[in-house]
Amino acid sequence: MAERILLVDDDIDTLRLVGLMLQRQGFEVQVASNGPQALTMAKAESPDLIVLDVMMPEMDGYEVARNLRADPTTGEIPIIMFTAKAEVDDKVAGFEAGVDDYLTKPTQPRELIAHIRAVLARASKRTASLGPADGRGHLVAVIAARGGLGVTSVALNLGITLREQTKKEVIVAEYRPGQGTIALELGYQNSESLNHLLKRKAHEISTSEVEGALTSHPLGTRMLLASYQPSDSQLAAAVANFEAITRHLAHLARYVIIDLGSSLTPVAGKLCKFCDEIILVIEPVPQTVIHTKALVNDLFNLGIGEGKITPVLVNRVRSGVQLSWSQVQDQLGLNIAVIFTPAPELAFQAATKNVPIVLQQKDSLTTQQYTQLAEKITQRSK
Predict the structure, then answer these.
(1) Does position 131 have pLDDT exceeding 60, yes or no?
(2) What distance in Å separates the CA atoms of residue 1 and residue 296, rounded to the nearest whole number?
(3) Phi, psi dihedrals of residue 11, rounded to the nearest 5°
(4) Rounded to the nearest 5°, which phi and psi values hold at 318?
(5) Which residues are CB-neighbours of 191 under 8 A, at least 6 positions away?
(6) Could you tell me if 164 and 268 lie in one domain?
């Protein structure tokens, strides 16, 4: 995924010229023309680096830098101060405000690029040294090529199992407005939290607001629940909101499991590139395997490599007419990570009691299979 740079300057020509130059170097560029706008966007978008001017109306660059450093959600974002103020006292003030580098205008484009790459490299090493528990959480998308394959069930039970196995913070996010099922399955009354976030302007969504929208399960897993009101499906097109929500969730838990539902929607396509791992739910039916193979090819075309895709095979009925796991694996061209065997009676009992299937019978084969999947994820996230 391209590194994201927030360019902050009140000069429109600078935003246009420098922004174009950065885009040509492969960066994703966002712009802000004043300090308050920069602070709002930094919180909402969590850029990889901020290039910040000093002389701006309303709030100068020094004050912006101090505000960024004072906020836990933006405090670790690298900052390069890029300004015409070249006096030693100006540079000292910049470093005292918390910037990582100071570069004066005018400068050669290659010099600015060199500074940006150097600061990003240092930030990457610093993040790596912190370890997973102190950095961004491990994001896992769960998706299928077609509906009705149990994507939500996999996401929910995987989240519960990860919490039980690791004792780390786990969030399950149901990104299916108008099609939510977790609230119904677990007996929760309120499933409007996701709707509220999707109706906001994306840049106004904050980490604290996202955290406040989460519902806690008694065992500790937190959930962002989707509405089951069909008319709310119109909110599914809010790509920028989903992206902002995901970036905030990534800093709220060690593991974030995202239920993307079926098909490669604009939201799914965007978030699959952002996630660390993709759980691909398949059933052993010829038409579904063909459909899933097409989805895999689409993911490849987005630049998502085979190493990020984890196929799981869900057998929902006992039938000799279905494909074997080896046939599915051969046709798909990917190794099946886990095979879920049919458990209709167990699923019915769990639904009747409003509990996840892995908690209905903790020593069941299904629970063991989810434990196997959870162990694979924890190994990859180390």
Answers:
(1) no
(2) 18
(3) -90, 115
(4) -85, 105
(5) 180, 182, 183, 225, 226, 227, 228
(6) yes
Based on the fold, state whether residues 65 and 160 are members of the same structural domain: no
| Residue 318 banded pLDDT, cuts 50, 70, 90 | low
Predicted TM-score (pTM) of the model is: 0.68
Residues 205 and 73 in one domain: no
Q: Which tokens is 376 given?
A: 């694979």
Calpha distance 279→119 (Å, rounded): 33
- DSSP assignment string, 319-365: -TTSPPHHHHHHHHTS---EEEPP-HHHHHHHHHTT--HHHHSTTSH
306 and 290, same domain (yes or no): yes
Q: Is residue 191's pLDDT more than 90?
A: no
Q: Which two tokens stand for residue 59?
A: 């709030």
**What is the reported pLDDT for 162?**
96
User: Do 124 and 153 sit in the same domain of this protein?
Assistant: no
Of 200-214, 254-268, 295-309, give the lowest mean pLDDT range: 200-214
Per the structure, the count of domains in the chain is 2
* Domain identity same for 168 and 41: no
Mark whether 195 and 234 lie in a shared domain: yes
Domain that holds residue 160: 133-380
Q: 138-170, pLDDT tens digit by residue?
A: 999 999 999 989 999 999 999 999 999 999 999
Q: What is the mean pLDDT of residues 290-317?
A: 91
